[in-house]
Structures are given as structure tokens and as C-alpha cells.
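ZP: hey, is the adenosine-5'-diphosphate complex queued? I don't see it on the tracker
AM: it wasn't, my bad. submitting now with these inputs:
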Amino acid sequence: MKKVLFVTSEAYPLIKTGGLADVSGGLPIAIKALGHDVRILIPGYAEAIASGMMEPLRLPGGRMSPMLHHGLLPGSEVEVYGLSHHDYFGRAGNPYLGADGKPWADNAERFSLLCHVGTELAMNRLGLDWQPDIVHCNDWQTGLIPALLNDELQRPATVFTIHNLAYQGIFPHETFVRLRLPNRLWSHEALEFYGQLSFIKGGLVFADRITTVSPNYAREIQGEDFGCGLDGLLRQRRERLSGILNGIDVEVWNPAKDPYLPAHFDRAGLERRGELKRHLQRAFSLPEDPDVPLLAWVGRLVEQKGIDLLLEIMPRLMALPLQIAVQGSGDARFEQTLQHWGKLFPDRFAIRVGYDEAHARLIEGGTDVFLMPSRFEPCGLNQMYSQRYGAVPLVRRAGGLADTVVDTNDETLRDGTATGIVFDDASPDALFDAIQRALRLYATPVDWRKIQANGMAKDFSWQVSARQYLELYELAEQDRATCLPHAARRAHG
Ligand code: ADP
Ligand code: GLC
């Protein structure tokens, strides 16, 4: 049995802004189910504490922990430690951004605290009488942990997972000084990145193993186009870098019993999706027409997701017989332009700005086509949810989208592997062509049903990936054994 400390800045259903929360709410449960002791450390955000899912932690011996709350990840036996700190995590709102949409001014302090506490927990210095074999860190918010642990004797092995290389946790040099990080970490072989402090480099330089969330993205980030300035470092560490595809929680995302859906269906009863399509059209105030092809979008309205490509072809799209529904939030300029289109074409185009779990599920259950023309996509979860819910994903051949959606052509229709529509160029024309291809396929119901059924038959559950992580933990432990701590390395000269 392995003991794993999983450190993350969000986990469903405690707190969620995107896919990281779904992964953090799913993978630990799958690892636990394989018989391992995995525990989560997460900031104790006001919302998560107020939900009553965590209580102040009593330490072995009866003393109360000065900083940790404790509970179980709802619906599971996975233990969660919530780092409570009134000033840093007690505020309401988004975990990373203030109401003005800008990062909280003290993010470096907030997540540095998470990393210090993670390091102390990893070294069994918080009175818990528990030391993990592995510390599994996720994204820049946890990046300092491998760097801080590197100096410790008898430390656990470290794994760092990149969910999105574009977010790096970059701060000015003054922040490095203010955080009182060890001086030796100020070097381009450590946390320095072109004169600034980079949290993510702590993970990329010091973790025993680096993973990312799809094999394709693991390849892409070693090149200049997707390397975000870190491709050189990643190439240097390529022996330690691998891609493990995300799974999805097939209990939480199950069209046969999803509590958010007003009607349920399975692969044998696909025609019942018609009822959901009607609900979806009503929810977005679109005409309730069962025959018109309905295209939908759920996600962050940012360039990464290719929303600008969709905006470019809006004039052409609005001349076609189709409907489009968008649920999302993000850059204000995209939100406003989309709202403008909604006013111009209320019978064809509808947008609901904001984060809404119920509408996201209704879209998966009721739309015909799910749009995901991402410029880059480390893994992407929605295209997998779509397939499970009988919606046909239309995606760009990028990152994990390429690993999880099979394009439809004569051959893939014949051999039963077709699950969606995949296009190559990140250009408005390529997206427009792909949508036209989708409309032609939709007009051939026999083929359309086949694509839907193929997608629904796929197994995207966490089990396979959880086993791969366990193999990786093993390798990380072997690598740690051969790696001297920094201090000892210096002594050896
Ligand atoms: P990313 O993490 O890059 O945003 P993913 O596809 O990995 O992309 O995961 C996004 C997750 O967040 C999905 O579960 C999706 O349903 C959810 N999501 C994103 N935006 C919204 C929204 N506006 N309302 C509801 N759910 C959303
Ligand atoms: C990031 C990526 C997304 C991935 C998610 C979970 O948010 O943008 O592609 O699915 O992390 O790993």
C-alpha cells in the first residue's frame, strides 16, 4: 500500500473553476479504490469550510491543529486536509481572481503558504503521525513543494502534474525576497525565469517525475509552439516526463442517473435525448425545434479554447439553419461580443454568461454537437463528457482532444471507431468547414446515431489512468533513491 499526499488548489465538489477540480475529485478516489492511502491537501476556502464538509482537525493525542481542517471528499473515503488561514483563504469568490477579474494581489503569499504547509505535512512535522511515500503536486500553485523538499533527507518522492503549462505563477524578484525562499533557489537552474520568480519551475526542475494530462500534450510541450518558454527545460528532463490521459468520473457523469438532468437515457434509449434537447432550447430561450441541428459550448471564454475562431465565423454561421447555445465566462470582450450576437439573432444564438453546473450537464445531455475548437488543450474533459452523453464533439486536433476523439470518415464509420469531428488548422475557415461537415453528417441520421453510440460505448473511467499513476509513483521512488539532496550534493563537491 502506498501513502500519497495529493496537493491541489481545487477539487470537485469542494471548489471548482475547471478541469483540475474534476481530476482532483476523481483520481484520488480511483487510487484509493486500488487499496492505497491517498489524502488531499487543499486550501480551506471560505466556501468549502462553510459547506460543513470539513471540521477543525483534532491531532493524535487530542490537541487541535492550528491550521488544518479535516473531512472526507463527499461520497468517498478519501481524507481531505483543508489549510485554513483567514486572511489568505477566508475571502469569498474565485480562488485565483478578484471581482475585477485580475489575480488576487497576494496569490504568491497564499500559494507559497500552501507549499510550505504541504512540505511540512510531507515531512510529518505537523503532528499527524503520517508520512506519505509520494507527494503528488498539481500546477503552479503547488510548484514550490518539490523545490523545498529537495533539501530534505528522508523525503517522499515527488510527482508534478502539468494541467496547463500556460499558467506558470510568475512574480517579480521582490516577491522571491519577500517570501524568504532559500537563496540557492534564485538561479536559472531553479526558480528564476528571465529575472522573475516562477512557481511552476519548482515542479519542472525538482520533481522526481513530471507528468502531463495527455500523451500528445507531453510531446507538444517539448516544442517551441506549445512550450511556453519552458520547452528547453522539458526537453532536458524528457526522460522523466510522460503523459497520462485524464479519466472522467463515470459515477458523477452518468446520463442514466445524472441528478441535474430532467430526463435520463442510456445507449439503448438515445431517442430520449430529444426531450433534453427541448429542455435545453427552452433554458436558452431558443425555438423548440427537434430537427434543427443544435451546437453548444461549455467552457472558459478565453483564447485557449478558440472562442475567437467561433466569433470570426459568426456572420457565416448565422446564415445557416442551426442553433448555437453557449454557457461560459471569461474575457469580458468575448462575453460582450457573444451577447451582442445573441441580441442580433435571438432565434439562433444564445449565451448565458457565468458558471452553471446544471446548464453544463443539460448541454451535454441535449446538444447535437459539442464545440471545442481549442488552440491548445492539455487534456480537456468536456469532449469525453460529450461522448458519454451522446453529444458529438467537434474538436481541433490538439493535445488531449487528438487522443480522445476519432474523426469520422468512411473507414472509421465502417470499423465503428468514429466518435466525432476533428479538424486541423486553428483557423476560422477550418472551423467553418468542420461545422459544415458536421451538418452534413447530422443530415444522415443512420451515421449520426452510429457516431453517438460509438462515443457512448467508450470507457473513459479513471481505472486505467489510476494504474498508470501507480506505476509512475514506483518510478518516482526509484528516481528519488538515486538523487542526493541538494545540501548533500554540495558537500560532495
Ligand atoms: P479547463 O480545465 O481548461 O477549463 P476542461 O475541459 O478540462 O477545461 O474542464 C472544464 C470543466 O469545467 C468541465 O467540467 C466543464 O463542464 C466545466 N466548466 C467550464 N466552464 C463552465 C461553466 N461556465 N459552467 C459550468 N461548467 C463549466
Ligand atoms: C487544465 C487544462 C485542461 C485539462 C484540465 C485537467 O485546465 O486546460 O485541458 O483537462 O486542466 O487536467
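AM: back. The domain at 267-457 is CATH 3.40.50.2000 (Rossmann fold).
ZP: great, adding it to the tracker
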